[in-house]
Amino acid sequence: MEDLQTRLENTLITKTDGDATIARLMAENEAYLKIIQSKGASHRTPEHPDPEAFTGEDPTLLPNFLQHLELKLEMNKDWWNSEPQRMGYVVSCLKGKAHDQVRYNIKDGVVLFDDVNAIKSTLQSAFGDIDAKATAQLKIFDMKQGHRSLTTFLPEWYAVAKLTEWDSGALIAHLRRALHDNVIWRLSHEGQRYPYRTWSIYGSCPYLR
């Protein structure tokens, strides 16, 4: 009887020690996970701004949206572990008509496109300019500086000019036509006194490179 009681006590002690060991190991594991998670967070790339949601209401906003989207995906590429996660993020940036173009290929929260490029191609087909060069060539004919400053007008003009794929000679001719008469007069006046300065404004202008 005493032997049985001793064995029972030893069994209970062993069980208690085992429970304590399990509890200790669980606590150590939890602490280790917290350390790993904190290290992972500290090594995560800083958040890059999200692109403004694209609705499709203004198709001309698509190029800027795609550019900002690509920057986000590249600058924070460690935020997503798989292509489905990347696609999920892209879809979350679409609203209204733009989202309608991709919703058919989303089932039970899973995006079924092959990859992000497939989603971008769908948006390009629906909202993109199929002939951006021709559009730019037509638009540049209507561009005039008016009473805007050069610092305002030139970037807008250049954004269109670079899409025309025209050479510098053609672009210089169009820029002369687009600038305000007072600016042309000043440049011509400067050209008579300092020919190199006028060339530096036109021929070496960063907007014509």
UniProtKB/TrEMBL annotation:
Q: From the UniProt record, which GO molecular function terms apply? A: RNA-directed DNA polymerase activity
Source organism per UniProt: Hirsutella rhossiliensis
Give UniProt keywords alphabetically: Nucleotidyltransferase, RNA-directed DNA polymerase, Transferase
Identify the domain of life.
Eukaryota
Put simply, this protein is called: Reverse transcriptase
Tell me yes or no: is Nucleotidyltransferase among this UniProt entry's keywords: yes
